């Protein structure tokens, strides 16, 4: 991207220099309430070279909108529909996740075919989401690379460095790829002919929180566990991965299967 164009809730519309149509990374700051209208997202989504990052704070809607018509209307304008209001029927523990996924769908409806979320938690344990939207697979891959640098364990979380309970920020943690192994195993099992490494990498990019660069090691671990076979044995772009003829007695671990 050649420029950064931040917008806040009260400054919608094209800038003085009318940059839309040029490669742009647009930051839409809605912290404190859902004040980014869906119409603005649609306008930005009409330009294939535009990417967006939206700050999304879910507690405002879960705390105030159910009993306040004006706040519900703000939610309708932000989401582009009333489907988000089903959050009031969700369990308390599932409300934030429901709103996050509804807003990711809003970005897709606006034209941003690929989306990611990044979860931020401050020292008061307050949650804020950053939601990224792009129309390009390369943009998606680059953003994932950046996210995994911030959170080398899970790729989707950031805790405020002011949090005094964090004492090991300078340690390098091993990524938790157990969910990736389960996801790839299920994807391979969907076809009797198996999958190629490029197919697995693209699936990981588009359908999971994981990076294509993590696929080869995940396949190697699946093979060591007896869950898959590879032909040829060396794992590279020409490798085809099949389910093992005799499956292992336990499925690949999936302790963090809900990350995506």
Written account of the structure:
- The protein is α/β, with parallel strands linked by helices.
- It folds into 2 domains: 7-159, no CATH class; 178-243, Arc Repressor Mutant, subunit A.
- The protein contains 8 helices and 9 strands.
- The chain has helices spanning 38-45, 59-65, 69-79, 95-109, 137-150, 178-189, 197-207, 215-224; strands at residues 7-8, 24-29, 50-56, 114-121, 127-134, 157-159, 195-196, 228-231, 240-243.
- The strands form 2 sheets. It has a 6-stranded mixed β-sheet with strand order 1-2-3-5-4-6.
- Helix 6 crosses helix 8.
- The longest helix is centred in the middle third of the chain and has 15 residues, at 95-109.
- The protein is elongated, with a radius of gyration of 21 Å.
Put the structure in a nutshell:
The chain is an alpha/beta fold and 260 residues long. The chain has helices at 38-45, 59-65, 69-79, 95-109, 137-150, 178-189, 197-207, 215-224; strands at residues 7-8, 24-29, 50-56, 114-121, 127-134, 157-159, 195-196, 228-231, 240-243.
* Termini Cα gap: 26 Å
Residues in helix, %: 25-40%
Principal-axis shape equals elongated
Structural classification: alpha/beta
Name the assembly state: single chain
Main-sheet strand order equals 1-2-3-5-4-6
Low-confidence stretches: 1-16, 160-172, 253-260
Please trace the helix and strand order, writing H or E for each element.
EEHEHHHEEHEHEHHEE
Radius of gyration: 21 Å
Number of strands: 9
DSSP helical segment count: 8
């Amino acid at each position: 991207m050649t420029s950064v164009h931040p917008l806040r809730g009260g400054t919608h519309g094209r800038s003085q220099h009318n940059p839309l149509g040029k490669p742009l990374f647009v930051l839409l700051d809605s912290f404190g309430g859902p004040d980014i209208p869906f119409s603005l997202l649609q306008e930005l989504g009409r330009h294939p070279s535009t990417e967006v990052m939206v700050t999304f704070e879910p507690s405002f809607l879960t705390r105030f909108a159910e009993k306040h018509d004006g706040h519900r209307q703000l939610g309708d304008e932000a989401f582009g529909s009333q489907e988000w209001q089903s959050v009031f029927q969700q369990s308390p523990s599932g409300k934030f996740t429901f709103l996050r996924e509804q807003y990711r769908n809003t970005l897709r409806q606006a034209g941003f075919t690929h989306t990611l979320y990044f979860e931020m938690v401050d020292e008061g344990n307050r949650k804020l989401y950053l939601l990224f939207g792009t129309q390009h697979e390369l943009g998606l891959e680059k953003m994932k690379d950046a996210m995994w640098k911030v959170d080398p364990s899970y790729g989707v979380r950031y805790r405020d460095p002011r949090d005094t309970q964090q004492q090991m920020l300078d340690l390098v943690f091993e990524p938790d790829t157990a969910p990736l192994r389960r996801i790839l195993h299920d994807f391979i099992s969907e076809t009797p002919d198996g999958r190629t490494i490029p197919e697995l990498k693209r699936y990981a990019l588009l359908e999971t929180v994981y990076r294509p660069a993590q696929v080869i090691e995940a396949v190697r671990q699946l093979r060591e566990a007896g869950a898959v076979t590879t032909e040829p044995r060396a794992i590279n772009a020409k490798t085809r991965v099949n389910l093992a003829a005799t499956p292992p007695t336990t499925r690949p671990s999936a302790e963090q299967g809900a990350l995506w």
